[in-house]
Amino acid sequence: MTTTASAPPPFGRALCAMVTPFTEEGALDLDGAQRLADRLVSEGCDGLVLNGTTGESPTTTDAEKSALVGAVREAVGDRASLVAGVGTFDTRHTVELALEAEKAGADGLLVVSPYYSKPPQDALAWHFRQIADASGLPLALYDIPGRTGTRIEPDTMIRLAEHPRIVAVKDCSYDFLGIQKVLSRTDLAYYAGCDEHILALYAVGAAGYVSTVANVAPRRMRSVLDAFDAGDTAGAARLQHRATPLIEAMMAAGLPGTVTAKALLGALGLPSGPVRAPLRPAGREAVDGLLRAYERLTSG
Predict the structure, then answer these.
(1) Rounded to whole angstroms, how far apart are CA atoms 87 and 69?
(2) Which listed residue (65, 142, 262, 294) is catalytic?
(3) Which residues have CB under 8 Å from 288's CB, separation 6+?
(4) Main-chain dihedrals φ then ψ at residue 22, nearest 5 degrees
(5) Could you confirm whether 170 is annotated as catalytic?
(6) For every one of its 300 residues, what pLDDT tens digit does the chain have, with 9 covering 90 and above?
(7) Residue 82 to residue 116: CA distance in whole angstroms
(8) Helix (H, G, I), strand (E, B), or coil: what is residue 274?
(9) 242 vs 198, 222, 227, 292, CA distance in Å?
């Protein structure tokens, strides 16, 4: 099958990989999560990814993950799709999280490749099919070999696209040729998982993005897609370029995106709270640099 331009994206176009707010004592801040989610949706996000890596999924409990989905569902209602991160290195545990996310009100599941164990491609495909068979929710596969140690190879993607509930990919593979191969041969909806690739992937047929930078600049990130859809490709390029300094400061300056997003949200007086160990908060110099990049983006 080939991708059709008229097919609506399964989870929207402009998705934010939302941080998980904590109280100053480190507990889950559901009120803060609801306020942040409402702001993100009001500012242009039509989907939220909860309990992803940016949401500190490695250090939140299963109960916290379910509570977060339920609270955000209550806050945003049907104004945005909710995609719950459920991926772990354990197939059985991932199935359990998928079922709990479905009960809590998620619209879809984000499933990362099992990390550290480096399963071969046939085992990887089996893992994803087990998750897809376990619940009634559509799946987005998360391909980020730099973190997991395992690539979801294009041929594996093409085979997995035959499953009726495997509908999308969050891509951090940095493989433009492989992405275009899958786009040309399947109906999988690709979402740029790296903010610097938003326009590039959208221009070759991606559905949109899952953005960490959107935590702090949701309208600015969405404006890239809006300009492109309006036929203003030069304007879309200018908007992508304008966002580049903030993207670099948040995503390529030596600190994890979770740390920089929470630091900048906190500096702006928005819900965030501390990060959980082993992550450590950004220092004053880093926060000042983030604020400068943010102010340059939003001043014009």
Answers:
(1) 15
(2) 142
(3) none
(4) -125, 160
(5) yes
(6) 333 445 789 999 999 999 999 999 999 999 999 999 999 999 999 999 999 999 999 999 999 999 999 999 999 999 999 999 999 999 999 999 999 999 999 999 999 999 999 999 999 999 999 999 999 999 999 999 999 999 999 999 999 999 999 999 999 999 999 999 999 999 999 999 999 999 999 999 999 999 999 999 999 999 999 999 999 999 999 999 999 999 999 999 899 999 999 999 999 999 999 999 999 999 999 999 999 999 999 996
(7) 27
(8) coil
(9) 13, 13, 13, 13
Active-site pick, 65, 118, 170, 262: 170
Task: Confirm or deny that 54 is annotated as ligand binding.
Answer: yes
CA distances from 181 to 1, 2, 196 (A): 12, 10, 20
Which pTM does this prediction carry?
A: 0.96
Q: Diameter of the chain by CA atoms?
A: 51
Closest CA to 45 of 226, 213, 197, 222: 222
Is 210 marked as a binding-site residue?
yes
Query: For 184, phi and psi rounded to 5 degrees?
Result: -75, -15
Q: Output the CA torsion sign for 288, 289, 294, 296.
A: positive
122 φψ region: left (φ > 0), alpha (ψ -120 to 50), beta (else): alpha
Tell me, yes or no, if 142 is annotated catalytic: yes
